[in-house]
Write a structure and sequence with these properties.
The chain is mostly helical. Among the domains are: 80 residues, Serine Threonine Protein Phosphatase 5, Tetratricopeptide repeat (Alpha Horseshoe), CATH 1.25.40; 116 residues, Serine Threonine Protein Phosphatase 5, Tetratricopeptide repeat, CATH 1.25.40. The chain has 22 helices and no strands.
């Protein structure tokens, strides 16, 4: 997970040979993903007095990234702030601001991240730094997806991809492909998502970027999971977790554990699945990652409700609602309202359940999340009393299912999806032959 060669050039003649040697050793260690070792070399490089401020700022930025990857976010923030303030070099300031945006995004402070990315984008355009422009647009694209604005996400990410292709920077292109895959996933466009993730995987493997290989395997598995291909989803996620332990990629473990939990619950391995889901929740809280905390809470609540354990689900749903408000994003409001509506129905509060599910649908429509929308309409069709209204919701759910299934090129994946019991139930009620999709 290293960066390409530096874009702002400092004169090596002004740097003591030992400091420059330590810096280069740090870069080499980071390229081998030996982040603790890299930190020691970068710290050594910073210990020499009289080095140019641009050199110091760049070393702080790189050391901050290593701290970030080792989950020491306070140390990362301290280094990024130093990278922002030590030098008056405009390109370096913009680079550091993007890094601070990534940190704010990870912590769930989307408004702060948005401000940082937009300022960095303006600065990058002003100085003509394509790397900064691409990274800032990628950050804005990721934020847009998390907020539920997938159309804007794809626009930003497409522009970021064009910038990195102009540079010929393979790693950054692959990072954007990962983000595009996630945006397509959020729209329920799983074939496009798989194409993007597989392209990213090929690049990361060629670069021996092991941590991002792990992340991409996780994303591919999540696409299979969404299409009810749980056997392959489990395969990808088990492989990803094994490699995460092998590479010491603790930052990635909660997301992988959450997905493993979902896979296992879907396969009927309920107790095992709950163990992984709670591990994911604990890990996300330890890292301070509000997004992963919300997703873990959502899946734990769904698992409890699947087994009619409303009492266990109740406090989990309450926590999810609070996190969704903190994140202030339609995507998470939709998930929180959806599962709260299901809980209310289990508790016998039918009218309240319908109102909550309608609120979820409004947020989901704003976020264009087809994968949530069809399930929402299917759920509402079971909750409402009016047969005509129920039929309308079943028809809409079936249409979203059709839009999901038809683009799938892999017949195995398409069969897994259309013949999955929840999907098949809607198609049968709507009078649609799954084999014709």
């Amino acid at each position: 997970m290293t960066d390409p060669a530096i874009s702002s050039i400092f004169s090596t003649r002004e740097i003591e040979a030992a400091a420059l040697a330590a810096y280069r050793e740090g870069r080499q260690a980071a390229s081998q993903q030996k982040y603790g070792k890299a930190i020691r070399f970068y710290t050594d490089a910073l210990s020499y007095e009289g080095t140019p401020t641009l050199f110091q700022a760049r070393v702080h930025e790189y050391r901050g990234l290593c701290h970030w990857l080792l989950s020491d976010f306070d140390a990362a923030e301290e280094d990024y702030q130093a990278a922002l303030t030590i030098s008056n070099d405009a390109e370096q300031i913009a680079r550091a601001r993007v890094r601070l945006g990534e940190l704010a995004d990870f912590r769930g402070d989307f408004e702060e991240a948005d401000n940082l990315y937009r300022q960095a984008l303006t600065e990058g355009l002003t100085v003509g730094n394509i790397l900064v422009v691409g990274r800032a647009r990628r950050g804005l694209g990721i934020l847009s997806r998390k907020k539920g604005d997938t159309e804007n996400a794809i626009r930003h990410l497409t522009q970021a991809l064009a910038a990195f292709r102009q540079m010929g920077e393979a790693r950054e292109q692959a990072r954007v492909m990962t983000s595009l895959g996630r945006a397509r996933h959020a729209r329920g466009e799983y074939q496009y998502a798989l194409n993007a993730h597989n392209e990213a995987l090929t690049i990361f493997e060629s670069l021996n970027d092991r941590w991002r290989v792990v992340q991409t395997l996780t994303d591919i598995g999540e696409c299979h999971q969404a299409l009810y291909d749980t056997a392959n989803a489990l395969h990808y996620h088990e492989k990803a977790l094994k490699l995460a332990y092998e590479y010491g990629a603790n930052l990635l473990k909660p997301e992988i554990q959450r997905n493993l939990g979902v896979d296992m619950v879907e396969q009927g391995r309920y107790d095992e699945g709950l163990v992984y889901l709670h591990l994911a929740l604990d890990g996300a809280r330890h890292l301070g990652n509000k997004e992963q905390e919300a997703l873990a809470l959502y899946n734990i609540a769904r698992a409890y409700l699947l087994h009619s354990q409303a009492e266990d689900a109740d406090p989990i749903v309450a926590e999810l609602v609070q996190i969704a408000e903190l994140l202030n994003a339609d995507r998470f409001r939709a998930l929180a309202s959806f599962v709260r509506g299901e809980l209310l129905f289990h508790q016998g509060q039918q009218a309240e359940a319908v109102a909550e599910l309608n609120a979820a649908m409004l947020s989901a429509q704003t976020s264009v999340d087809r994968g949530v929308l069809w399930k929402l309409h299917a759920t509402i069709s079971h909750v409402v009393d009016n047969p005509q209204i129920a039929a309308v919701h079943r028809t809409i759910a079936a249409e979203f299912i059709r839009q999901t299934a038809e683009p799938l090129q892999d017949q195995h994946l398409k069969s897994c999806f259309v013949f999955a019991p929840p999907v098949l139930a809607i198609l049968n009620l709507a009078g649609i032959n799954p084999a014709k999709l």
